[in-house]
Amino acid sequence: MNTMTDFSALAPREEVTSAEAPSVVTFAAGQMLYALPVERVQEILDLRPIAPLPNAPAHLLGLCDVRGAGVPVVDLRSLLGLPPTEDTGHSRILVTWIGGAEERHVVGIKTERVIEVTTLDEGRMQHMSSADMLNWTDTAVLGIGKRNGAFVTLLDIDRLMDPSRLTVFAEARQGLV
Asked: Is pLDDT at 2 greater than 50 in this prediction?
C-alpha cells in the first residue's frame, strides 16, 4: 500500500464520483464515523499492550510492538478533542503512515471500533474547503461522504498529526494559549 491519493486537485465543494472517490477504512469515535483512504492503512490490529512514554503528550499513548518494531500509538479521541473512554472488545489499532514519498512514519491510531473497508454511498465525497468550514482553516478534513446514510468524515491524517498543529492543540487544552 505505497500509493497516496492526491486530493489537492479537487476544487472546493466539488463532488467526487465513484471513479475518483477512494476506498476507505471506516471507524468510530463516539457516535461519529470517520475514514482514512485504504492505501494509508497498513493493517488493523486487535488492541495490544502499549508501553507508555515518559512526559508524552496526552494524545500519545506510547509504543506497541508491530512485528518487532516499536510503533507510536495515538488516541483518536484525544486528537479529536473528545473525552477519554474505556477500551472494549471492539477497540482496535489502525497502523497507518504519515508523511510523503520522501519521508514516511508509521503510527498506530487507537480507535473505538473499526467498521469496514468500503466505498462511500454512491461513490461520492464532497471535498471540504476552508469556506465550507466557515473559515475554519485548521481543519484536518479531506471531505465528507455518507455510508449507509450516515455522514462519514474523511480525515487528512497528515494534517491531523502535524506536529505544529498538535503543539497548539495541546497548549490550548491546557489553557496556555
From this structure: no
